[in-house]
Design brief:
The chain is an all-alpha fold. The protein has five helices and no strands. Helix 3 packs parallel to helix 5 and helix 4 runs antiparallel to helix 5. The longest helix has 31 residues.
């Protein structure tokens, strides 16, 4: 063993697979905690990176649009949970490439755009639909690749 931080591999077993694309089975609570954590990370990073647009004027640019932030944060938390849940449910059955990064990225983008721009409800709905469609396409690609692997 040349790497001091390599995981211990019992004799006669496979080495540790550090592949991004793997099936993630487990109990429901683990999936739910994962989805909540990924969503919280996406919303938090979106909020932090838009602070210069929502804080006092002496700390950055003047606010892009007036209005409360909590409805947007709540909306993207719910949307992020649905996106993360869809990706994790697919990853529990077939290998999906980077479901966590995909869910964080979609949630982050929606949160960041919503807090900086403060769109009306139909536009937020369209952004939510775009995020859900992107997650569904990501899952469909994983399902198709899994079917091809099974046929081969």
């Amino acid at each position: 063993m040349t790497d001091p931080f390599a995981p211990d591999v019992p004799a006669g077993s496979e080495p540790f697979d550090d592949d991004e694309e793997s099936v993630r089975p487990g109990p429901f609570r683990r999936h739910a905690l994962w989805a909540a954590g990924v969503t919280a990370a996406g919303v938090a990073v979106g909020w932090v990176t838009s602070l210069f647009r929502i804080g006092p004027e002496e700390y950055g640019l003047p606010p892009a649009a007036p209005g409360a932030l909590w409805p947007y944060l709540t909306a993207w938390a719910v949307i992020g949970l649905v996106v993360a849940g869809l990706l994790r449910a697919t990853a529990a059955r077939v290998p999906v490439y980077a479901p966590g990064r995909t869910a964080v990225a979609l949630t982050y983008l929606g949160t960041r755009l919503s807090l900086g721009w403060r769109p009306e409800a139909p536009v937020v709905g369209a952004m939510a639909a775009a995020a859900l469609i992107a997650a569904a396409v990501w899952c469909a690609v994983a399902l198709r690749q899994n079917r091809r692997r099974a046929e081969a």
